């Protein structure tokens, strides 16, 4: 802990001792908001693994989200390696290996991430939850501490560069795989091929779900653990506690089960109308790219890999059309996710730095935005029943896009 | 077997990152093509003796214009064996994938 920090951030051997409320309240708020972020993360990313399976009819929509939720929950318990190093290389660390960030700033950063995740969900855009989280934290750290609180080289090499390249990598792999699959099965006219591709796709999609759980639930655990350490409730260098693992796993599973149908429809139907061979090729490409990249120590975003793979599978089929206006919207969302979450996180950090009153303002403002987006979404709901129905449209922007597609 | 790269240090990150991206691309492309290729071959072997779905060029083989005919001859044993070998290869890849996902298995 840096000498400049107030003494109230001392390690408390047990939470049972009298604890300063100005410390405890922000910590409780961060824990609650982290779990809510984790929920939106599952909600947002269900599409990654299951959109193409739902689109091709490989899985019934309700069954797809159930499988994905269970595998995400299982994944959350499999490893806590990522959780320990969640902010490593992104936020500058002091001599104790802790980032120079305070609890209200983490709260502000999380608020930025949650608001951005819900906004892109309402728009039906598959943007990276991880980028939203890091964007929010970066914005909060820059406003709260200064530009030196962020390791810009790490941001470039760990976030920006992979984000630019992963859709192309996954896209080219999926393109080649789709082409090969269609060649070998004579444009899927070989007897039984469509059914077989549906079974294969279910397996690859499940692997993607499992990998997602091992990665994304970790990030929330990491944020909660970081908060507990910064506030002095937990020793530096220790891993997440059981209740943290449990609540993070359950939150992401619940979010996944409730399902981001709006995003699923975009990935499964609106980028290109995914057929069984394409779904198989896309999910297998995504699964192997994700697994190989994390094994080689260069993890790529699940969201961007799957979206890239779906685009590639559209290009790999003869005569298949990719709706480039939808792709352009997705690409735009990817580019602005980190800066936009950073702006919200920075603004929230500025407000929250004024003390409890500022925190309350951020809390109320953030909740108002979330409730507003949920209410807006209810006006044109996308659910398990109409996720594959091309007649409905999720939002007004989407309506305009559909008209453009027909033209 | 895939071995993890040592993480890039503060210096020379661009060279290392570019190298690992290229490696991810090459290994990912090769692994994916082998897996989907084996799976598609397995489907071909299992379909020996059954006529293809007849469909106008470019139409959906599951669409209304598709004509599905019943199997003409039973599948010969060699085709069954070859198909099983293909599917076994894919199953091995899936098991290896699960092994990679679960850090407990490789001590990380």
Automatic annotation (TrEMBL), chain A:
Signal peptide: none annotated. Keywords: Membrane, Phosphate transport, Transmembrane, Transmembrane helix, Transport. GO terms for biological process: phosphate ion transmembrane transport. It holds the Pfam family PHO4. The chain crosses the membrane at residues 21-43, 63-83, 103-123, 129-147, 159-182, 242-261, 326-350, 356-376. Its main location: membrane. Belongs to the inorganic phosphate transporter (PiT) (TC 2.A.20) family. This is Phosphate transporter. It comes from Microbacterium testaceum (strain StLB037).
TrEMBL record, chain B:
The chain crosses the membrane at residues 20-41, 81-102. Keywords: Membrane, Transmembrane, Transmembrane helix. It comes from the Bacteria. This is Uncharacterized protein.
């Amino acid at each position: 802990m840096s000498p400049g920090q107030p003494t109230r951030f001392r390690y408390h051997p047990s939470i049972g001792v009298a604890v300063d409320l100005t410390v405890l309240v922000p910590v409780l708020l961060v824990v609650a908001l982290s779990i809510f972020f984790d929920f939106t993360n599952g909600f947002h990313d269900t599409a990654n693994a299951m959109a193409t399976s739902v689109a091709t009819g490989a899985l019934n929509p309700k069954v797809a989200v159930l499988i994905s939720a269970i595998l995400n929950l299982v994944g959350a318990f499999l490893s806590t390696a990522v959780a320990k190093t969640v902010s490593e290389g992104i936020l500058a660390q002091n001599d104790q290996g802790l980032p120079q960030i305070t609890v209200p700033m983490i709260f502000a950063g999380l608020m930025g991430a949650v608001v951005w995740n819900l906004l892109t969900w309402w728009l039906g855009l598959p943007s990276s939850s991880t980028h939203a989280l890091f964007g929010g934290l970066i914005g909060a750290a820059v406003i709260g501490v200064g530009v030196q609180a962020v390791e810009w080289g790490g941001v470039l090499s760990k976030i920006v560069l992979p984000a630019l390249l992963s859709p192309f990598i996954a896209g080219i792999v999926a393109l080649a795989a789709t082409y090969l699959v269609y060649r070998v099965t004579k444009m899927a006219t070989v007897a039984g091929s469509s059914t077989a591709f549906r079974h294969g796709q279910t397996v690859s999609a499940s692997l993607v779900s499992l990998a997602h759980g091992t990665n994304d639930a970790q990030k929330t655990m990491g944020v909660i653990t970081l908060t507990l350490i910064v506030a002095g409730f937990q020793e530096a260098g220790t891993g997440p506690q059981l209740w943290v693992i449990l609540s993070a796993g359950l939150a992401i599973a619940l979010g996944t089960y409730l399902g981001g149908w709006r995003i699923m429809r975009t990935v499964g139907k609106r980028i290109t109308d995914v057929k069984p061979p394409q779904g198989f090729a896309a999910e297998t490409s995504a699964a192997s790219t994700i697994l190989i990249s994390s094994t080689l120590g260069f993890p790529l975003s699940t969201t961007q890999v799957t979206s890239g793979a779906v685009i590639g599978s559209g290009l790999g089929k003869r005569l298949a059309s990719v709706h480039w206006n939808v792709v352009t919207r997705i690409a735009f969302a990817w580019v602005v996710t980190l800066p936009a979450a950073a702006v919200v996180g920075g603004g929230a950090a500025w407000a929250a730095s004024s003390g409890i009153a500022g925190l309350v303002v951020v809390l109320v403002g953030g909740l108002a935005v979330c409730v507003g987006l949920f209410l807006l979404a209810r006006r044109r709901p996308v659910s398990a029943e109409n996720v594959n129905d091309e007649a409905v449209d999720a939002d007004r922007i989407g309506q305009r896009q559909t008209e453009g597609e027909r033209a | 077997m895939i071995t993890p790269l040592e993480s890039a240090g503060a210096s020379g990150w661009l060279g290392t990152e570019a190298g690992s991206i290229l490696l991810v691309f090459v290994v990912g492309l090769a692994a994916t093509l082998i897996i989907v290729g084996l799976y598609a071959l397995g489907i071909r072997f299992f379909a020996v003796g059954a006529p293809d779905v007849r469909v106008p060029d470019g139409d959906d083989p599951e669409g209304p214009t598709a004509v599905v005919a019943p199997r003409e001859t039973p599948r010969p044993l060699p085709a069954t064996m070859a198909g099983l070998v293909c599917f076994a290869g894919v199953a091995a890849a899936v098991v290896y994938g699960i092994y990679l996902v679960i850090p407990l298995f490789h001590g990380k």
